[in-house]
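Tutorial, part two.
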Amino acid sequence: MNTLKYIPDILSYGLIGFAFLLSFLTYRLLKAEQKKDQPHEALLKSINKYILFCVFLAFGGLISEVLGPAVELWIGTESEISTGAGVALGRQAHQSFVNGGDATQLDGRWRATWYTLDDSAKRKQWEYFDDELGEMKTYPPDVIIVKTHDSVVSCTSINSRFQNLPYWLEGRVSNKDYLTLMYWSPLELRGGNLVGIVILRLRERRDKKLIMEGLWQGYTGEDEDGVGVVTYGETEWLKLD
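Running the prediction step on this input gives:
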């Protein structure tokens, strides 16, 4: 997890504490001066101004830490936010998306196999209708390249059905090792974009290899009659390197 993101908060709280400490010490100096038989008027005025400055300094830090997130929640902000889900919803939504689990171990190549259920409710590899052959064919596993940043997981794969066209997946991993992804493809595919969702759970096999298992559902194109089909099933991702 990136610890640099906590630096602004540390500095803000440090500024607040430092300001209150200066205010207290300056107040003690003021009381000591007032107890003198002949207090120095110019010094008293300077101390009063300095106390006021310290109070404003501490108050500014409090506004930044306490009211800042609330204001952003209401009006949203695009400052310091450039990519990732939740950008249009403001800083709190975006940071909640980014600050989940640690996705670093997911970096690399994965072999993803997609399954559906046959007529007897048994799992089988997903099949699609091949226009050229005029028959159903088994969809082979995809090799998916995964890149991560904090909790964000971004994936690129070459569609095993359309070799010259990629498709993409992006989402986040939670602190409980659940990965949620949305996938989509170019418009050039027959029937338009393939779109859907994937929910995976990460675990380690006995041979120490990482595997993710879960469910998927999405629009997978058109059948032999040209009718759009929404398919669902299970999926397994095995890390290759």
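The radius of gyration is 29 Å. In part three we will examine how such features are distributed along the chain.
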